[in-house]
């Protein structure tokens, strides 16, 4: 029994553990991307005005962004248990101190960003625990000192940024080189005035990228080969008077990318001397941008002569003049950037001899026409003439550029285009002419541009698209005409765009009549993206259209029809989306839609994303969503919804994200949420919530359910009742709204434990008394039922011990049954076979008028005799009749009766008979016993069973 009790207690404790709620997923002032129960969580806590690291970071966070806050210290324990964290961004704070063991738990961290803080020193042990760190960003601090062994054990670090600090002397960087696998080192803007490789003793690095830009070097000396693997070297912003020394050109032989941009000097020859250090090297990429030089006219020509392998040359924002022979030795250059130079014209033979030039940028200059110099570049593949002052194109102006694939003419003043302008560009794949003044396109472009794949014409002044423009343009895949003045299409304007996948027509004053006149989108079977925002598509009724516009777009995946203007798209026709069987994403918000027909989405069974934000709905018919079983993202922000009841019957079983901010509902209940079993993100801010018990379940669920994140839950405020207006919903006390389950569990468990212990006690000590009481109760009920007509089967029940059985058989039976005619009940003779003994005892005692107890020492010691006299005593108490007759066969002193308290109590209350020792007294004994048995218990009680008693008397 005790074992059962302990098992029961263990069960209760197990139930108690399971009742305790899981950790909450509604994070205060942070947004999580991903499920709380899985690793890989991305936690965004930037710009939240934190003064310390938030304490409720989920343990399975993989990427943590706490940038742009007011954190001043990183303390031990701030990142406790974040064993999965791989990326930490703590930039743009006010961190001036970091505890030695602050990062000890971040054993798998790979990227650490501490830039733009107030650190002044990197001390030994600062990065303890970060053995797996690969990227460390410390730019924009105030670092002046780095201890010798700060990076000793960071053997996996490959990228380190120490830019914009106050190191002042390059030798202070030497501890960094203890990170033996470092590949990229950024030391921009540290006020270094001197660089000498001799300051780094016994160092041979694997550095591939070294950025020393924006340091006021006065001398730069490379006398030892400490950078045998260097590939990219940046020395932007060098000042005049630089003493450049490279004792052996082989020390820089591996450099392939060199940037000397922003070099300001008044002394000629300095820059040429630097270039000579790389003569005949592997240098392929040279950036000489923002130069203010007084070099000789042959400087650029000499650059290419000294660097025969040069392939990329950047010359942005320079002021020196280009000569006809500037690039005469640059035959291997393939990429040339001459943007932002203020060029108005180019020497006609400027690019002569550049037989490998494939990329040329002349953007952001002052060219008024396409320069003739480009006609000599037959190898050109990309030409950028964007943001010049070109107003007119000449026919066949690009005819010699037979290999050209990308032509950029955006940001000019072109007002008309003709197919003749592009004759000869048979390989052109991409044409950008956005942000011009194009009002008209004439001719059939396919004659010249039959290989064109991408055409960007947005933000021009086109007003009309006829059938000829895109005729036979079978290669075109991307067409962007956003922001023009197009109001009409000819029927079949796009009929030959058989491979078009993206068509953008947004922000054009299109007329619905254009759609009604024919299948305007016919001929584009592969179209996947269609943009029609702000196109004045006005429909006032949800009635079916005779000719729905999208019936031929079987492959369309993305459709935008949002922002159609005030009072324009009031109702979406019920068959407006007919034909869009592949549609997955629909944007239809920011307009005055006040009703959505239940059949609206019956033609889009694969829809997964729906945006109906900023519309005039007040209710939604749940039947709308019954035909889109794959819907996983819904935006219903500021849709004037009064409740979320539509969710209950909408069958949105796959919905993962629901945003319904700025609506009018006040309550979110359990039924709403249970209708969305796969919901992962929920945004309900800016709704007039009620601080009442109606939202108690939603509050608890938002804080405890680990599968769904309620975005910005801690910012949700209450609007009702008036005394709670402005109160955060999370601060509303819901204790009064729920049963005290803790107290109930305590009462139930305490009661069960008490009952278990009481039951154990009764079973062990009083089980026979309980059995007797049970039978006594049964007898009482039987007696009450049978009392008016009770008839006894026996005159007396004889209770005796088996040791006294000879006396019963030899003396008692002959005198009472044979001599007196009494009917006695003897257990060996009258008990019913197979029946439990106790049941036989109880039944026969109550079937007898009286109970005759034959008492001896053996009788007192007998357990069954004790039970019999107990039952007889209970009957005496129950019926209040003189039904007990005691006969002592031997003298038993009181001291011997003391252990038998029940017998002693009876002897004190009742008269009893003693079996006489003298034979002469036996006749008197039998007379007294006969009289005791003959005595009526009640005046009107029936006569004895046998009728011979009167004669005997």
TrEMBL record:
Describe its membrane topology. Single-pass type I membrane protein
The stretch of residues making up the signal peptide is 1-24
List the InterPro entries hit by this protein, alphabetically.
Answer: Cys-rich_flank_reg_C (IPR000483), Leu-rich_rpt (IPR001611), Leu-rich_rpt_typical-subtyp (IPR003591), LRR_dom_sf (IPR032675), TIR_dom (IPR000157), Toll_tir_struct_dom_sf (IPR035897)
| Claim: Repeat is one of the keywords in the record | yes
SMART domains per the record? LRR_SD22, LRR_TYP, LRRCT, TIR
Keywords noted in UniProt: Glycoprotein, Immunity, Inflammatory response, Innate immunity, Leucine-rich repeat, Membrane, Receptor, Repeat, Signal, Transmembrane, Transmembrane helix
What GO biological process terms are annotated to this protein in UniProt?
inflammatory response; innate immune response; toll-like receptor signaling pathway
Query: Known SUPFAM superfamilies for this protein?
Result: L domain-like, Toll/Interleukin receptor TIR domain
List all membrane-crossing ranges.
Answer: none
GO CC entries:
plasma membrane
Q: Where does the source fall among the domains of life?
A: Eukaryota
Query: Which GO molecular function annotation, any one, does this entry have?
Result: signaling receptor activity
Q: In what residue span(s) does the TIR domain sit?
A: 792-933
Q: Which family does it belong to?
A: Belongs to the Toll-like receptor family.
Q: What is this protein called?
A: TIR domain-containing protein
Which classification does the entry list for the species?
Eukaryota, Metazoa, Chordata, Craniata, Vertebrata
